[in-house]
Write a structure and sequence with these properties.
The chain is about 40% helix and about 20% strand. It starts with a strand and ends with a helix. The strands form 3 sheets. The chain has a 10-stranded mixed sheet, with helices on both faces. The chain has a two-stranded antiparallel sheet with strand order 6-7. The relative contact order is 0.16. By secondary structure, the protein is an alpha/beta fold. The longest helix has 18 residues. It binds 1,4-dihydronicotinamide adenine dinucleotide (NAI), 2-OXO-4-methylpentanoic acid and magnesium ion (MG). 1,4-dihydronicotinamide adenine dinucleotide binds next to helix 4.
């Protein structure tokens, strides 16, 4: 039966990078007989401009009725003056919550061709293969109460609430332990249990599940400040990192620098029923509209979609191999450019990956 893909380009560079991933998917549909259909809808700022809200019901329904969602990025300076409740980012958070996409898998692997593109020394980054398992529907991004209130003395006070239930911690812990079993069998759980009760509970629950259900997986714990430091000092010590929403958000942006650029990191946001695929970066307003954004993270997100939601692991591998071949050819968007390579724009990079896929697909 035909598989439906909801395509939500969003804002800033979103439409530019999603267009390149759509080229790849359209090739699989039109020339390789993959039984998929794509339908596009606005989300974030684009949706606010079109309908007044960041997650219109029609977009939500499209996502709920799809087999997988491909998302670009949302947000930008244009919508920053709006109240938080109706900002573009709330559209994305709403989508993650409504689809119950509690597990965000953010693999950070270094392509050997890009070792020199990392600001870190080659001997530190070569060979890194980290999977950040970020909880995506809880924590301080969703906790109530939240807001800014006026105090009797006339000054203002802002507050957000970090919340995790035992069940929320348990289900993400299982995802991390299971993922580790297919890798180096090491999980590092990152928290701030020395200060925050919520994450003390996190540590207890992860420890209990590890001991009870995954004795074959080595479990360690690290405070988030140390983890941020260790990622730079000795990144190869990590296999799977499991952590909450806000820590995972921050640490995965940091991990992207090990790989050369945030434009290289894909992600899969998974729940029991749905899957959404998005690069880890934002809408990059500073380079939007210039045709220079790196589309690789989005194309690799489409590969993850083929693997996790569309049961097409071979095409996922072929796309990943095509990216590698284009890097071998020396093509680079500006964010990963180094002397001796050829600088290309977003569309040229997408075209080159498609051309490499055509060759690989025939072979
Ligand atoms: N998943 C999402 O939709 C996310 C949305 N945002 C939103 O995006 C907007 C901008 O946020 P920032 O903090 O600037 O983060 P950002 O990730 O958009 O950009 C950070 C830096 O990385 C660069 N960059 C990002 N993606 C790139 C790519 N594919 N190729 C080359 N360079 C790339 C940007 O040019 C910028 O210098 C904000 O409105 C923010 O709320 C931020 C993070 C995630
Ligand atoms: C809601 C998003 C802006 C949060 C974010 O930065 C991310 O998911 O990477
Ligand atoms: Mg982020």
């Amino acid at each position: 039966m035909s598989k439906k893909i909801a395509v939500l380009p969003g804002d800033g560079i979103g439409p530019e990078i999603v267009a390149e991933a759509v080229k790849v998917l359209a090739y699989l549909r039109d020339e390789q007989g993959l039984d998929i259909s794509m339908a596009e809808a606005p989300v974030g700022g684009a949706a606010i401009d079109a309908t007044g809200v960041p997650l219109p019901d029609s977009t939500l329904q499209l996502a709920l009725n799809a087999d997988a969602v491909l998302l670009g990025a949302v947000g930008g300076p244009k919508w920053e003056p709006l109240p938080h409740a109706v900002r573009p980012e709330r559209g994305l958070l709403g989508l993650r919550k409504r689809l119950d996409l509690f597990a965000n898998l953010r693999p950070a692997t270094v392509y050997p061709q890009l070792v020199a593109a990392s600001p870190l020394k080659p001997e530190l980054v070569s060979g890194i293969d980290i999977l950040v398992v970020r909880e995506l529907t809880g924590d301080i991004y969703f906790g109530e109460p939240r807001g800014v209130e006026r105090l009797p003395d006339g000054s203002r006070r802002g507050y957000n609430t970090m919340v995790y239930s035992e069940a929320e911690i348990a289900r993400i812990a299982h995802v991390a332990f299971k993922a580790a079993r297919g890798r180096q069998k090491k999980v590092c759980s990152v928290d701030k249990a020395n200060v925050l009760e919520t994450t003390e509970l996190w540590r207890e629950v992860v420890t209990e599940i590890g001991r009870r259900d995954y004795p074959d997986v080595e479990l360690s714990h690290m405070y988030v400040d140390n983890a941020a430091m260790q990622l730079i000092r000795w990144p190869r010590q990590f296999d799977v990192i499991v952590t909450g929403n806000i820590f995972g958000d921050i640490l995965s942006d940091e991990a992207s620098q090990l790989t050369g650029s945030i434009g290289m990191l894909p992600s899969a946001s998974l729940g029991d029923k749905y899957g959404m695929y998005e690069p880890i970066h934002g809408s990059a307003p500073d380079i939007a509209g210039q045709g220079i954004a790196n589309p690789i993270a989005t194309i690799l997100s489409a590969a993850m979609m083929l693997r996790y939601s569309l049961n097409e692991p071979v095409w996922a591998e072929r796309i990943e191999a095509a990216v590698s071949r284009v890097l071998d050819q020396g093509l680079r968007t500006p964010d990963i450019y180094a002397e001796g390579t050829r600088k290309v724009g977003t569309a040229e990079m997408g075209d080159a990956i498609l051309a490499a896929l055509r060759q690989g697909g025939q072979g």
